[in-house]
């Protein structure tokens, strides 16, 4: 059947969803629906704005509706981990779930954050082996990344977080994880970022003008690579300041594409064509041009 000839969503369409709060900005529906069209699947993927207080009930509702799969954004990854009856090694290592596969016996929880980020670095030609990494923030996203970064050969992974004690509750950041936790306002924060060859921004800070930055841009070495895990907005004052200094600066869209490919493989046993997903979100490459080049 030609993809254009597929009927619109109906009672036979397989249901998938992304849950988060907020979620209106999400490009996950564009990516996954493009994958379904390319694979000629009778399926639909929707975005649902679900506050943390209602997340467990929403997941129960998706299971009752016969949904096939779901994705979770922060701050719902810990709740999804508790909901899953079974977890993959990646989810277990992180203590957080961002992808669920529903079945009659319950739900299997998976985490694509770490593997997706490693793939993103490889495609962006940023070396992970031997890297010194500073992660700004200590939530579920950081916990998902850390085990894969340690396993990938990073020589140091430091998590700069407002509450190191709370961050340690995640398996991916807790005792024995190989991750050093330092307080954002402490002496170790600046030293960790200045020494880093890769800086990962996973906090809600610095989205718009006048807001506090995740860290001063001067802390990031000009030879480092910096990635803000968010992609909305596509550029932030922090990323602009870094790219103006020559830092290879990227938002989280490249990671989102990798995560979508891995989620599709988790649900269906194979990845859809990468180009279908890249075209759906207008992918142009990993690094943002400097602000001056963008205005030219």
Topology:
Elements: E1 14-20, H1 28-39, E2 43-49, H2 55-65, E3 69-72, H3 77-83, E4 86-87, H4 89-94, E5 99-103, E6 106-110, H5 113-123, E7 132-136, H6 140-151, E8 156-161, H7 164-167, E9 179-183, H8 187-195, E10 198-201, E11 225-228, H9 237-244, E12 248-250, H10 253-268, H11 274-280, H12 291-295
Parallel strand pairs: 1-2, 1-3, 4-6, 7-8, 7-10, 8-9, 10-11, 11-12
Antiparallel strand pairs: 3-5, 5-6
Helix pairs in contact: 1-10, 1-11, 5-6, 5-10
How would you describe what is shown here?
This protein has 2 domains: 3-111 and 258-280, Rossmann fold (3-Layer(aba) Sandwich); 114-251, NAD(P)-binding Rossmann-like Domain (Rossmann fold, 3-Layer(aba) Sandwich). 48% of the residues are buried. The protein is built from 12 helices and 12 strands. It is an alpha/beta fold and 296 residues long.
- Give the termini separation: 45 Å
CATH class of the largest domain: Alpha Beta
Unreliable residue stretches = none
Major sheet: order of its strands? 2-1-3-5-6-4
Number of strands: 12
* Architecture (CATH level 2) name of the largest domain: 3-Layer(aba) Sandwich
Q: Count up the domains.
A: 2
- The CATH superfamily of the largest domain is known as NAD(P)-binding Rossmann-like Domain
**How does the overall form come out from the CA principal axes?**
globular
State the helical fraction. 25-40%
Radius of gyration: 19 Å
The number of helical runs is 12
The class by helix and strand makeup works out as alpha/beta
Strand content: 15-25%
Query: At the third CATH level, what is the topology name of the largest domain?
Result: Rossmann fold
The mean pLDDT is 95
Q: What is the H/E string?
A: EHEHEHEHEEHEHEHEHEEHEHHH
Oligomer: single chain
Major beta sheet summary: 6 strands, mixed
